[in-house]
Amino acid sequence: MATQRAQDTVQTTHFRSDRISTINGRFFFTTREGTLEGPYFSRDEAERGIPRYIDRMMQSLAILDSRNAEDEFRP
Fold this sequence. Notes:
It holds the Pfam family DUF6316. This is DUF6316 domain-containing protein. By secondary structure, the chain is an alpha+beta fold. The protein has a domain at 43-74. The protein has one helix at residues 43-72; strands spanning 20-23, 26-30, 36-40. The chain has a three-stranded antiparallel sheet with strand order 1-2-3, with helices on one face.
């Protein structure tokens, strides 16, 4: 079961594809936003990097949200 992002307002069908690719012997993963993350030295390392990337993005969004909330209360 796929998780829908909050900004994805329209239901669509998503096809799972391999997010890991190799370039010049190094491993990378692609994100939904279209970025290429890496390089990693092994496929396993790249796969472990995906949840870490997601955690970083979630933390970034939380920081931005808290800053925006602070700005709303400033005179």
